[in-house]
Design goal:
By secondary structure, the protein is of the alpha/beta class. It has one domain: Spore Coat Polysaccharide Biosynthesis Protein SpsA, Chain A, CATH 3.90.550. About 30% of the residues lie in helices and about 25% in strands. Bound molecules: cytidine-5'-triphosphate and magnesium ion. Cytidine-5'-triphosphate binds next to helix 2.
Length: about 230
C-alpha cells in the first residue's frame, strides 16, 4: 500500500499579514511541526511539500523521510492540483494544511484506516459546539441543527485515483471548494470522518497565533472518543 502526503504551505497569509507557515513557534517554523508528525507515521512513504515558487530553494527542511518540494498555485485548490499531478504510484493520499501544526499522528492514522476500510475519503472533524446561524443583512434567518453539523479540519485522506479525478472534474467545470472533500462529495464519492480536536486549530489571524503559543505550552490531554 503506497501512502503519500501533500503538505500545503504555499499560501500568502493575506488575513494574517505574512506567510504564516514560515513563522517560528518555539524555534521551529510552523510547517516543520507537520513534517515532524509525518516522520513518526511508518506507513507514510513521502511528502510533497507545496511552497510558493519564490521560496522553493530558500526553505530548509528536516525530515528522515523523502520530501519533494513543489511550487504552489494561486488558490489552495491549484496548489493541491499541482501536487496531485506530480504524484505517481499512490494508493492513498493525505492532504494537510501546514497552518494546522497540532494535527496528531492518530488523526492521520484514523483517516488512512477509513480509506483502507473502503471509504473514498475521510476528513478529520469535530462536532460543532457553538450554535450556527444563517443570516442575511442584519437579520438572523435560520438556526441550524447542531446535531447534524461537523467542523472539517485536516488531515483528510483519499483514494488517490478518486481525488485526482474529482480535482480534474472541478477544474473542467470551474468549481472551487474550500476543502478537497467537497470536490469528492460533488463527484458522488463516499466520504466519512475521523476524530479531530479543538486543539487542531488553523492559524488564520494573529489571534490564532496567540492561541497556538498557548497550545504549544500545554501537554495534550488524552483523547476521549467524541463520535
Ligand atoms: N495554501 C496553499 N496554496 C495556496 C493557498 C493556501 O498551499 N495558494 C495553503 C496555506 O499555506 C495553508 C492552507 O493552504 O497551509 C490553508 O489555507 P489558509 O489558511 O487560507 O492560508 P492562506 O491562504 O495562506 O491565508 P489567506 O487565505 O488569509 O491568504
Ligand atoms: Mg487562503
Amino acid at each position: 500500500m503506497k501512502v503519500k502526503v501533500i503538505l500545503l504551505a504555499a499560501g500568502y497569509g493575506k488575513r494574517f499579514g505574512e506567510k504564516k507557515q514560515f513563522l517560528k513557534l518555539k524555534g521551529e517554523p510552523l510547517f516543520q511541526y507537520s513534517l515532524n508528525t509525518i516522520n513518526k507515521i511508518d506507513i507514510v512513504q513521502e511528502t510533497y511539500l507545496v511552497l510558493p515558487q519564490e521560496d522553493l530553494e530558500r526553505i530548509k527542511i528536516f525530515s528522515f523521510k523523502p520530501v519533494i518540494k513543489i511550487a504552489g498555485g494561486v488558490q489552495r485548490q491549484d496548489s493541491v492540483y499541482n501536487a496531485l499531478a506530480h504524484i505517481k504510484e499512490c494508493d492513498i493520499v493525505i492532504i494537510h494544511d501546514s497552518a494546522r501544526p497540532f494535527a496528531t499522528e492518530e488523526m492521520f492514522l484514523e483517516a488512512i484506516e477509513n480509506v483502507k476500510k473502503g471509504f473514498d475519503g475521510s476528513i478529520t472533524a469535530i462536532k460543532t459546539t457553538d450554535t450556527i446561524k444563517k443570516y442575511k443583512g442584519d437579520l438572523i434567518r435560520e438556526t441550524l441543527n447542531r446535531d447534524e453539523l461537523l467542523q472539517a479540519q485536516t488531515p483528510q485522506a483519499f483514494s488517490f485515483e478518486k481525488i485526482k479525478s474529482a480535482h480534474e472534474k472541478a477544474k473542467k467545470e470551474n468549481i472551487t471548494g474550500t476543502d478537497d472533500a467537497y470536490l469528492m462529495e460533488r463527484a458522488g464519492y463516499r466520504i466519512t470522518y475521523n476524530q479531530g480536536s479543538h486543539l487542531n486549530i488553523k492559524i488564520t489571524t494573529k489571534e490564532d497565533l496567540k492561541l497556538a503559543e498557548c497550545i504549544s505550552n500545554i501537554q495534550t490531554p488524552k483523547r476521549k472518543p467524541i463520535f
